């Protein structure tokens, strides 16, 4: 478990390992499914069951996420109660874009040449669809 802890530089690898663990536990949906709306007084038993299951799975997944972080990073996220909030903030701070996507976009941009006599507008629309 110590070898796969999130340390601030291994976000993509850490996230992949986390998803593997959560998929095994059938709790992967918690990463990006927001908290269900608060239960009203006349909620059905199915809605209550769904809500309670989400809260329980959120508690478990939050504990797993915090356990898979270094102590310093844990302190930044331990006050957040729901997993989607933790994941959103981590993605904003630590996510590294996939290089193959950046490469393809750069290649398409720099590989586009304006043909003589064509309008700048049509060239721009090819570069930035």
Could you characterize what this model shows?
- With about 130 residues, the protein is mainly alpha-helical.
- It has one domain.
- The protein has helices at about 10-25, 45-65, 70-75, 85-95, 100-110, 120-125.
- It is elongated and about 70 Å long.
- The chain starts with 10 loop residues before the first helix and ends with a helix.
- Structural class by SSE content: mainly alpha
Major β-sheet annotation = none
- How many structural domains are formed by the residues? 1
Spans where pLDDT lies below 50 across 5 or more residues:
none
**C-alpha end-to-end distance:** 45 Å
Average pLDDT rating: 87
- What general outline do the C-alpha atoms trace? elongated
Radius of gyration: 22 Å
Order of helices and strands: HHHHHH
Q: How much of the sequence is in beta strands?
A: under 5%
β-strand number: 0
**Helix content class:** 55-70%
Number of helices: 6
């Amino acid at each position: 478990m110590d070898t796969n802890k999130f340390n601030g530089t291994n976000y993509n690898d850490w996230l992949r390992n986390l998803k593997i663990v959560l998929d095994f536990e059938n709790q992967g949906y918690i990463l990006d499914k927001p908290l269900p709306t608060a239960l009203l007084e006349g909620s059905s038993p199915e809605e209550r069951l769904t809500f309670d299951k989400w809260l329980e799975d959120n508690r478990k997944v939050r504990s797993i996420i915090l356990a898979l972080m270094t102590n310093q990073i844990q302190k930044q996220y331990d006050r957040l109660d729901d997993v989607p909030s933790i994941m959103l903030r981590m993605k904003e701070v630590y996510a590294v874009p996939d290089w193959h996507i950046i490469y393809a976009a750069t290649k398409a941009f720099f590989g586009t040449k304006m043909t003589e006599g064509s309008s700048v507008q049509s060239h721009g629309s090819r570069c930035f669809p």
